[in-house]
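Structure request: Elongation of very long chain fatty acids protein, Leptotrombidium deliense.
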Amino acid sequence: MIQVVKLLMEWYTQVMANGDPRLADWPLMKGPLPVITICFSYVYFVKYLGPQLMKDRSPFDIRRLMIAYNFFMVIISALLVYVFAVKAWFNGYSLTCQPVDYSPTGDAYVIAVASYSYFIVKFLEFFDTIFFVLRKKFSHVSTLHVIHHGIMPFSVWWGLKFVPGGHATFFGFINSFVHVIMYTYYGLAAVGPQMNKYLWWKRYLTVLQMVQFILIFIHSFQLLFRDCSFPRAFGLWISAHGVLFWFLFSHFYRHTYLRAKSAAAVNGVSNARQRPRRGFFETVCSPNATLIQHLNHSESKKQNGTSNNKYSENNNLFGKQTNGCIDRSKKAN
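Returned structure:
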């Protein structure tokens, strides 16, 4: 057993020694353990510690902080898109095979810095989930959300350690572009309900995410069939993430926008106003469902020998609930 551990340590040392020397002394780049620790700490906080700390507390009002954060992320993402475009993908990079340039100066070094910046941004994105916890929106802390944010820093670290440039930067380029749009939406949504009429395109954000992962998969998987000096192992690594995230987001899309809509139509509440919420729908107003509920209730009362007066009371109760439903609908608008 000791011999096995020794061999593993020697192998690990050799692997780490093959990393890009330009980034060797940068924060978090010595080895993966600090990144793994931060990622696990994030998961522990948003799934366990955070909800426990907030259990007996009122939600924090952090609307202004969220607006500032989201538009800050828009700016950072836009800058990354600009650098990756001007210094790489609109500057002679090949879509079919682009080796890494390890030069310590020039555009190659700028791309390495941009890749490292993209890596750091993955940690900043933890605040997406932390804000949910502070606002006690625990239902938003879904498995998809936590997996997506929790593994990204670890996944990006390996590419940054060994291939901070070349073919791998397509992932950061297109992902940053999508995030410009995504954080613009989140920033506008954080302004308040008055912006809702301009945010009808929410579901298409998920579609855009899925298209992104398809492009990332195709772009990286092709390396397995080409004679390219970019490491095929990293082509496979990136492709695997494209497949994983595509399945996660497509499951979310089906569950949120397709299955719930179908279920609502089957139950006779297709006209109910519904609001998508991280994997489930919250019905805001459903008079048809209320009618069915009270008719069934009154029928049950009849079978049990209940008088017609009770049935009349149920109808009155239904009237009150219907009015209440209409009132809530008005407030929602």
